[in-house]
Amino acid sequence: MGRLRKKRMHVNDKSIKKKHRTRRRIKDLDQITEDMEPENAAKMSNQPRDQDLPGEGQHYCLHCARYFINEDALKKHFKSKLHKRRLTALREPVYTQKEAEMAAGMGHYVLPPPPLDVGMKQPGMGISPGSMGTSLEKRVERKDKKENDINDLIQVSKQLKTMTM
What we know:
The protein is mostly helical. It contains seven helices and two strands. The chain has two domains: 13-119, no CATH class; 133-165.
């Protein structure tokens, strides 16, 4: 006879699977959009000190629903790709029950609401996550500047040609 199996003892244990699946569950987008409403945002940004939370609950990213240990970590997070992805996901309107009914053929067509402005300044922070200059804007500015410089050079060269003639 062989030895007893010591691994895979909880293969069909549903409660253990559920614990692992929901261990580090983050808020859904609809919950975050509710938190972003002005009255809820003020509550979330001015939380009382809590010893159990990172940074005593004083450094909170409203868009990602995460606590950070200090302000430097929060500012670094604002520049991260994860935060920027979350901002783009929050710009889309929230999926509602009306949309689900319309998809099932039980509702009337209604125009979608305009996209949300998620680039708001977080209270108490010196930077605005949505107001950081995009690389596209910078490229357009550089291109315009180059075109202006080229036009200036062409005008100067025309003036020189007329002077030499």
